[in-house]
Structures are given as structure tokens and as C-alpha cells.
Amino acid sequence: MLIGVIKDSTPNENRLALTPQSAQRLTKKGAQLLVESNLGAELYFSDAAYVKSGAKISTRAEILSTADILIHVRKPSLEEVNALKPGCIHISFLDPFNEKNLIDLLAQKNISAVSLEMIPRTTLAQKMDALSSQASLAGYTAVLLAAERIKKILPMMTTPAGTIPPARVFIIGAGVAGLQAIATAKRLGARVDAFDTRPVVKEQVQSLGAKFVEIDLGETGQTKDGYAKALTPEQLVKQREGMARICAASDIVITTAQLFGRKAPVIITQAMIAGMKPGSVLVDLAVESGGNIEGSQPGKEININGVTIIGPVNLPGKAAIDASEMLASNFVNFVEHFWSKELNTFTLKLDDEILKGCLITHQGKIVHESLKPKV
Question: How many CA atoms lie within 13 A of 37 on its CB side?
Fold first, then answer.
């Protein structure tokens, strides 16, 4: 079984799908590894380190044309898909609900495509959950990014010149990214408020030392996978009204609300931004899926009447070494789960619940129930 790893061609993507340490876990199982030359050079992982782990260094063209399994961070380009050998297993983030042409081509080329986003959120699959591992880093780096921009300190500080009050941070969304943002802001000494449409997370928010903001929205909840359910237009209006006062008093607002497979909801409007004090900073973690903040743009910082709106792209990449180690572990855990000891190879177990959740195309067809063409 030949496993190939290539550099990502997506702009601003500096994370790796495999590190030398994780590579060793695969070669010890008997897998043959082909790694693109200089794969980890930007993160100080040398080709020699990969060779020491049992991998072989090769060219991009050879890896694409010969790999039985190709692991990749972001979705492949159409050119890369066309270069893959038929029957190859491709594992990466795929964004399948928004990439119809890509998914169609993967099926046409007889590629078995696994989407990391679709791995079920179950106890068994937890060690493969790349979305959560990367969201945790995004929450952490979002706080550091905002702290650098506000021109204030976060903790309370008593000095001979008087006492400096703590900065106020408002986190919207208490999923993995939001909870890590809360924890980071608290460690830096800020006063933290947090809101989520799911009342079930109140205890988690409070356990991290933040105040849980309660807004009566009527019936809300979460999906079977733990994601927040979409709000009705009426509920969104109520939510914005309840948040406006807290935003106005906050120095930093970080939004993390995303709806899986759908455009992110607009939570912070221009009217709410107008009510915030100059020098405040907003960070939109959902900017790549449509954005929670009206007017935010991917990869840009916008100033509106003294309020800075940041639309960061690839926040986990700000801590690319740790992000790569975590991603590589997620990839290897997935491969190990489907590694047959008897055959000493990777096998797609089509009846496995994890694979049912994340296998998008197989044997020339789109096989995922949520993406199958409607008859």
C-alpha cells in the first residue's frame, strides 16, 4: 500500500498532512510512504527527517500518479484529481456541499474520496476529528490576534499610577473554537462573556470562568452531531438585540458560529458595529464560510469608525507546527482504524459507521446519502 503526501497548492495554506513523527507510525505498520521533496521545509521538518522515519522522497508528479492513498490538507485542484490514478483513495478537507464540480470529477475518475469534515462526532471517531483539533487552535490564535490589535492590555493591573480594569471579551458560539477562545482570554486576564444558542453548553462556559449570556430565543438546540441548529429570522433578530448591549461594552468580540454545510449566519450587523466604541476589535472566525459579521472579508482588516473587523484566513496556520502535528495524528488515526493486521494493508470497510459518514465518492459514484443526486 503506497501512501503519498504532497504540498498543498491552496494559497495561505502552510499546514502539513504528515510530520516525520507521524510518518514513523505508518512505516512501522508496513506502509510505503512517498513524500514530496521539501514538504516540511517551511516548518523545519527536513527531507532527512522523513527519510529517517522510513519514507522516500519523490516528485509531485510521481506521487499523484502512483499513490494508492493520497493525504492532503485542503481540497485538491481539478488538475490534481485528473493526475490521480483510478481507484486511489483521497483523504482531505473537501468542503463537499460547496464543491459540486470537484465531487463530480472525483466520482468520474473513480476516486474514493474521504472528507475530513464529515467524520462523525462520536467517541470512537474523536481521535480522527480534524475539524475539532483545528478549531481549538483557531480559538486560541483568534484571541492573540485580537489582543495584539486593541492597543490595551487584557488583565487588570494595579500600578502606582492607578488600577487598569480588565479588557472585556465577548465570545459568540461555545463550540470547540469558542471554548478555547474563552479559556485563552481568561488565562490572559480578561473579563469574558459568552453566548451560545444551545443552553446545554452553559455549564462548560461557566467552568472556564466566563459569564454565560442568556437571551430568550424560544426553542433552540443542537443537531445529533453537536452543531447548533439554524435560528429562524425572528430568533436572529432577538439574538442581535440581546447582543447589541454587550458588544457596545466589549473591547473584543469573537464570532465562531457556523452551520455545517451551509452559509454562516450574520450575527453582528452594521448597526451593532456602529454602537461599539472606537478601538474595539471584532474577529470573524466564520469568514471563510460566509461570515458572522456584516462587512467582514476573508483575509482583510476593515476599519469602520474606529472599530476594526478582522476576517482571518487559516487561523490554525498561525500555529502551523502544532496544527500539523495534530492534523497528522488525525490522518494517521484514520488510516490505522482501517488497517488490516491480517492483510497488512488499508481496507475500506464500507459497513463501518465512521466511513459511512465521511466517504463521499466510491467506485465511480457519489455514495454519501446527503450528496447523492436526487432521482
Answer: 5
Residue type, 267: I
Nearest CA to 128 out of 358, 333, 322 is that of 333
Domain with 63 in it: what CATH number?
3.40.50.720
The model's pTM: 0.90
pLDDT, average across residues 220-228: 53
Active site residues: 121, 126, 129, 132, 227
Q: Are residues 7 and 151 in the same domain?
A: no
Q: Give the three cell numbers for residue 308.
A: 476594526
In a domain, 368, yes or no: no
Residue 92 lies in a domain: yes
One domain for residues 219 and 342: no
For the packed helices 20-28 and 320-337, what is the interaxial angle rounded to 10 degrees? Answer: 10
pLDDT digits (tens, 9 = 90+) for 37-61: 999 999 999 999 999 999 999 999 9
Q: In total, how many domains does the chain have?
A: 2
**Which pLDDT band, with edges at 50, 70 and 90, does 82 fall under?**
very high
d(CA 298, CA 303): 14
> Among 201, 173, 327, 186, which Cα is nearest to 259's?
173
Same domain, 114 and 156: no
Beta strands in the chain (DSSP E): 2-5, 32-36, 56-58, 69-71, 89-92, 112-115, 157-159, 162-164, 168-172, 191-195, 211-212, 252-255, 281-284, 301-304, 307-310, 339-340, 345-346, 359-362, 365-366
Find out whether 8 and 39 touch, Cβ atoms under 8 Å.
Answer: no
Residue span of the structural domain in which 298 resides = 132-313
Identify whether residues 109 and 220 lie together within a single domain.
no
Beta-carbon count within 10 A of 51 CB: 15
Residue 179 domain-assigned (yes or no): yes
Q: What is the pLDDT of residues 241-251, one digit of tens each?
A: 888 999 999 99
